[in-house]
Amino acid sequence: MFAILYIVVVIILLAVMVGLYQKNTNAMCKSKKRLDGKTTIITGGTTGIGLRIAIDFADRGAKVIIACPYSDEGASAIKTVNDKTGSEKVIYKYLDLASLDSVRKFAADIMNTEDRLDILVNNAGVGIVGDFLTKDGLNFIMQVNYFGHFLLTLLLLPLLKKTGRPSEPTRIVNMSSILHNIGKIDLENLNKTNYWYKIQIYGHSKLALVLFARELTCRLRDSRDTHVVINSVDPGLVGTNIYYSAGSIRGVIIKFLCYTLCKTPWEGAQTAIHVAMDKKAGEVSGEFFKNCKQATAHRSAYDKKVAKQLWEESVRLVKMNDKELNSCFLDL
């Protein structure tokens, strides 16, 4: 009994130390850049970090497209953003990242209705949920967090390229996580299930987003498309609704620790906003940011061979055809 109590006390002390570190390393985006006349898309922009990013962009004058699979959450988010900013340029569009068909329909709608796209924030994600496959045959966590965003980004790339200028490139922000450090890319089976800890799959998906950003940067440079930049962000440990997906006693403990010791969603949104707004952040691509500064990701994120192989396997798994893929890199 004493041993168990000792372990509990140690865990609590470690949690407090992590929480204090998180609070002491908070950084705020200092850019005052306006977004009047600009169009932005935020996946998962209805709650948590995504909602705070939507509020910030709307307050800067941008047209904000909030993409998520729940219309009631979309309506609520629009009201929240409108109430806080007075903006009337916030809209909701249906997007279910767990469905490749939905991703294609959303992208086609954007391509047909929007004449520009300045910022794409790949923010949506799920946490410690069931380990199962979607109707597309992809692991649910991997598809929502990574595969869906991979396909969405490439389908919207022609519009991003069309909008970008040498003096003001368009920006893609991938929401990674500190847990990318425990990720590992299993190229033999990216849909591997039955991990002992579901959090491992989450880590895989967040590492994949960093590798994707680096590989897309290389391919854009090879095709001399330098008017689009893509960078990855670690928001830190943030208390968001993503932890509601954790069930049982473990989930209760996680929620308690997150909401008492971690960054608030507003604090967690700052690095993503910085990467989308800061002038210097727009001069680099394929990089990793933390606490509003360029940082170093886990060493596995810099494996060029794995990044290339991940790209090729991802193209196959999301069933991109040659026409779709070629349109990403042809001059418009």
From TrEMBL:
<feature type="transmembrane region" description="Helical">
    <location>
        <begin position="6"/>
        <end position="24"/>
    </location>
</feature>
<dbReference type="InterPro" id="IPR036291">
    <property type="entry name" value="NAD(P)-bd_dom_sf"/>
</dbReference>
<dbReference type="Pfam" id="PF00106">
    <property type="entry name" value="adh_short"/>
</dbReference>
<keyword id="KW-0472">Membrane</keyword>
<comment type="similarity">
    <text>Belongs to the short-chain dehydrogenases/reductases (SDR) family.</text>
</comment>
<keyword id="KW-1133">Transmembrane helix</keyword>
<keyword id="KW-0560">Oxidoreductase</keyword>
<dbReference type="InterPro" id="IPR002347">
    <property type="entry name" value="SDR_fam"/>
</dbReference>
<keyword id="KW-0812">Transmembrane</keyword>
<protein>
    <recommendedName>
        <fullName>Retinol dehydrogenase 11</fullName>
    </recommendedName>
</protein>
<dbReference type="GO" id="GO:0016491">
    <property type="term" value="F:oxidoreductase activity"/>
</dbReference>
